[in-house]
Write a structure and sequence with these properties.
Elements lengths: L9 H13 L10 H9 L5 H5 L3 H5 L6 H13 L10
Length: about 90
């Protein structure tokens, strides 16, 4: 029996997968409970919210330092979002 569904193009499938990653909660990407709580207190609940923040925005959060920032960067990298420049 022939399929009546129209297959999504590779590009459409990639966009769909990217959107799903953007909609993930900060808790879903492997951040510690403490880090997740810090972010949520500032209204940052999803990966998309997190990606809209600058480094300075994040460092401006109470109890959020360089070590926590690195945790966030590594979690984002684990789901395919990379920094444009990485400190050396």
């Amino acid at each position: 029996m022939a399929s009546t569904r129209i297959p999504l193009s590779r590009k459409d499938e990639e966009l769909k997968e990217r959107q799903a990653r953007l909609e993930m909660s900060t808790a879903e990407i492997g951040l510690t409970v403490r880090t997740t709580n810090c972010l949520e207190e500032r209204g940052i609940f999803t990966v998309e919210d997190l990606l809209k923040c600058t480094r300075d925005d994040l460092l401006g959060i109470a109890n959020f330092g360089e070590k926590t920032l690195e945790e966030v960067y590594l979690a984002l990298e684990s789901i395919g979002f990379y920094r444009t420049s990485r400190p050396r």
